[in-house]
Design brief:
Elements (H helix, E strand, L loop, with lengths): L2 H17 L4 H11 L4 H16 L1 H8 L11 H16 L5 H15 L2 H17 L10 H9 L3 H11 L1 H10 L6 E5 L6 H10 L3 E4 L6 E6 L6 H4 L3 E3 L2 H9 L7 E4 L6 H9 L5 E6 L5 H10 L5 E5 L14 E7 L14 H4 L2 H18 L3 E11 L8 H10 L3 E3 L1 H6 L10 E2 L2 E4 L9 E8 L2
Parallel strand pairs: 5-6, 5-8, 6-7, 8-9
Antiparallel strand pairs: 1-3, 1-4, 2-3, 9-13, 10-13, 11-12, 12-13
Helix pairs in contact: 1-2, 1-3, 1-5, 1-6, 3-5, 4-5, 5-6, 5-7, 6-7, 9-10, 13-14, 17-18
């Protein structure tokens, strides 16, 4: 693929993310798989797409100095300018003149000479004058919002919930790529053996502290290894592994997974059960069951039975006290995974959070009676928000006096997080900057009567 074609592809992806509300991570993977890209092209495409989306508010702030307030600019032109300025400001490998030349050529292809001249003029001015200094913004919330490209409402919300210092750390961390982590299939290989095999492939890896099956990939292309191709390892964030670990399953148990796709947690649970027992895995969307089934098949697990179903309506499908363990990995705003899915921060709203908190509480309430006395529910989300996390648990406990947060949950946590900043009476909030992981909340509830 030529440089011109590559940048046309990058522009196509960015337009689909913005105009069609496409998910950045899915679109990037889709385009990479559908085109014969070498590693250098994959690296540049990934860097420019994620970087442009990650820095969108900052890039628009820079652009405001070079576009007249009332000047109408088509979306594709603005996105082309964003991706070009991102490369000029944040990347070193491509000289400015080459970036400008490619942008002008794309503008000619997609528009006309007038648009090409406009793009050339804006980018030449950026090259000559430089971009605005964000540090000169006096309002601290606006400065943090623009500098880290998080919407003002979200910055304000996090400051109110967690304080200014923690919010700043979280916002800056969301601009950085987190390490890739994988989980070994213990029925096939030990973690120690897997690390040795990865080292032979020039991959630097180290054990995770969150799960005995977890491995942190420091350097190298783990997706190109035979271990990955043969189902000996699977990609999963460390916090996601922790949710399965804290479910505290054992062989022969009956387990319910209420919101199972894409299948990372439920296959981990099956491995922890040594593929002995039964797991009923539900998801609202029928097409997503294929993801669970494929992952289960790839890992050669047999105890997972997938079914389509709304988690808010599962109570009538089973007798009371059917399950030893229930996993509620609830649908959420996803504000903990901004590092991997940066478009999330622009598409979510306060209304979304309130709506999702209601759904989360409804799910917990619906499945509560399905748990055996003495059984345990793990409630988790991949978001950082008090309303979706601690307040959902608080409201559930107020309405269900026969449940409580399991006191052993806190002592069963990995030692390095037991004194962490996110511990509360309702569970553990993991922040994205604390351990270089996704932002994540989890707790464990026990039914005592």
């Amino acid at each position: 693929m030529t440089k011109h074609q590559l940048r046309q592809t990058i522009l196509d992806i960015l337009l689909r993310i913005e105009a069609d509300s496409g998910y950045s991570h899915l679109l990037v993977n889709q385009y990479i798989k559908s085109r014969n890209l070498d590693l250098k092209d994959v690296a540049l495409l990934t860097e420019v797409v994620y970087g442009t989306v990650q820095r969108q508010l900052t890039l628009d702030y820079y652009l405001d100095d070079f576009i007249k307030p009332k000047q109408k600019v088509d979306l594709w032109v603005r996105v082309l300018l964003r991706m070009s300025i991102y490369q000029m400001v944040y990347l070193d490998r491509v000289p400015d003149y080459a970036i400008i030349h490619e942008a002008v050529d794309i503008a000619k292809d997609r528009g006309h000479q007038g648009i090409a001249s406009f793009v050339n003029g804006v980018l030449r001015n950026v090259q000559r004058k430089g971009v605005a200094d964000v540090a000169s913004i006096h309002d601290n919330v606006k400065r943090l919002s623009i500098e880290t490209s998080h919407p003002t409402w979200l910055v304000n919300r996090w400051i109110n919930n967690y304080g200014t210092k923690l919010t700043e750390s979280m916002c800056y961390a969301n601009l950085k790529q987190k390490p890739l982590t994988v989980r070994v299939q213990p029925l096939k290989i030990s973690r120690e053996e897997a690390i040795k095999e990865l080292n032979k492939d020039d991959i630097q890896a180290e054990p995770s502290l969150f799960s005995d099956q977890g491995i942190i990939i420091k350097t190298g292309h783990v997706l190109d290894t035979q271990l990955f191709a043969n189902g000996y390892i699977t990609i999963q964030d460390q916090t996601s592994m922790l949710a399965s670990e804290m479910l505290a399953v054992s062989e022969g148990m009956h387990v319910l997974d209420t919101c199972s796709a894409p299948g990372g947690k439920v296959t981990h649970v099956a491995e922890l059960m040594k593929d002995n027992g039964s797991i009923h895995a539900y998801d609202l969307h029928k097409n997503k069951l294929k993801l669970i089934n494929k992952k289960s098949s790839d890992l050669q697990l047999t105890i997972i039975e997938t079914k389509q179903g709304d988690a808010r309506k599962l109570g009538s499908l089973y007798p009371d006290e059917t399950f030893d363990r229930i996993l509620v990995d609830a649908p959420c705003s996803g504000l903990g995974v901004i590092r991997s899915k940066p478009d999330i921060k622009y598409t979510k709203s306060l209304n979304d959070i309130s709506r999702l908190a209601t759904i989360q509480l409804d799910i917990l309430t619906e499945v509560a009676l399905l748990l055996k006395i003495g059984g345990q529910i793990v409630y988790s989300t991949c978001t950082v928000d008090v309303q979706e996390n601690e307040q959902v648990v608080e409201h559930f406990l107020q309405e269900h006096s026969n449940f409580e947060v399991d006191a052993n949950f806190f002592t069963n946590l990995p030692s390095h997080v037991q004194e962490g900043p996110g511990i509360s009476q309702y569970g553990l909030q993991i922040f994205p900057h604390s351990y270089e992981t996704d932002g994540f909340f989890l707790t464990r509830l026990i039914r005592h009567s």
